Amino acid sequence: MTVHTEILLIAIAVSIACAIPGVFLVLRRMSMMADAITHTVFLGIVLAFFVTEDLNSPLLLVGATVVGVGTVWLTEMIHNTGLVNEDASIGIIFPLLFSIAIILVSLYSGNAHLDVDTALLGEIAFAPFDRWIVNGTDLGPVSLWISLGVAVINLLLVMLFYKELQLSTFDPLLAGLFGFMPALIHYVLMTMVSLTVVAS
User: Fold this and answer.
1) Does residue 58 register a pLDDT over 70?
2) pTM of the predicted protein model
3) Which residues on neighbouring strands pair with residue 133, listed in sequence order?
4) DSSP secondary structure, 43-70, as one string
5) Number of domains in the chain
6) Which of 68, 79, 15 is nearest to 192 (CA)?
7) Cα 70 from chain centroid?
8) b (16+ CB within 10 A) / e for 152-188
């Protein structure tokens, strides 16, 4: 398989992984939340890197996912005060957490190979060079397998909880009456979004 084919497959896998929870974000009119999560997870990556000092550690994924869910929680906490609307609460939390991450990287990662451009922008053209090799067998790019894994997890979650997601998206009060716990479904969806953003 050529490098160009691998890049295309990675892009397709990432697109599928992002589209699955993305549909529910658009239906819930929360597409701005995805933008906020994509930037604030950088703080989780930075903090996890400071703990592990390894850019390949799976704790980077865990830290970023926790900060992504924390972003949603903080945004909703500010919104629930009634002082600001949801867009304004996103506008408060998103720059705050993102700027903390930028400051931490600028101040404390001088000797590390972690910079803002690398962590935020990435480059899909370099993805095929990080190979997954097991017992001398090249299984392909690691990012392809991660993206496919996240896409499968997202697909399974949506297939298992489609009725709950659909009902809590269109009528959260009715979902609560049926005992579906819309808040829990909301945070599961936000966890899916955070995990997908980090894997992408």
Assistant:
1) yes
2) 0.80
3) 138
4) HHHHHHHHHH--TT-THHHHHHHHHHHH
5) 1
6) 68
7) 12
8) ebbeebbeeeeebbebbbeebeebeeeebebeebbeb
In sequence order, what E strands does 78-148 have? Answer: 131-134, 137-141
Segments forming the whole domain that contains residue 107: 3-199
Instruction: Write down the mean pLDDT value for the chain.
Output: 85
3-state secondary structure of 168: helix
Q: Which tokens in the block code for residue 183?
A: 């808040």
Strands of the chain, DSSP E: 131-134, 137-141
- Map tokens 């980077």 to a residue: 60
Residue 131 has pLDDT above 70, yes or no: yes
pLDDT mean over 83-109: 85
User: Could you tell me if 50 and 22 are in contact, meaning their C-beta atoms sit under 8 angstroms apart?
Assistant: no
Q: How far is CA 59 from CA 7, 70, 86, in A?
A: 25, 16, 30
CA-to-CA separations, 27 to 1, 20, 59, in angstroms, rounded: 38, 12, 31
| pLDDT computed for residue 150 by the predictor | 93
Q: What is the CATH number of the domain that holds 177?
A: 1.10.3470.10
